[in-house]
Amino acid sequence: MDYVETVQRETTARHDITARKDARIAEIETVRATLELYLEKTFDERRSNFREMFARLDTAQAQANLAEMQLLLGGILDLAKSSPFKDLATFKANLDNPDFVLEL
Known about the structure:
It is built from 3 helices and no strands. It is mainly alpha-helical. The protein has one domain. Helix 1 (2-62) packs antiparallel against helix 2. It is rod-shaped.
């Protein structure tokens, strides 16, 4: 009888371990997908911002508008200095918050 109980207990323990493993893998996959989406959207936005700023810089240069050129170059440099990776700690904290909603 002791052997049967041990087998049942260990079988139950293995099922519990498998269930926890599957839940953790699903959690990791969800975080990965969310992170990939976040980075994709962030880089798309940066690309769009750079394109618009350079197009406006070309226009300002064609019009010899030095003040506008200076303003745009400053904006381009500020955008280049910023990194989407810098905000990952905040993003991670938000993911840990069950009330967090990712707005795209």
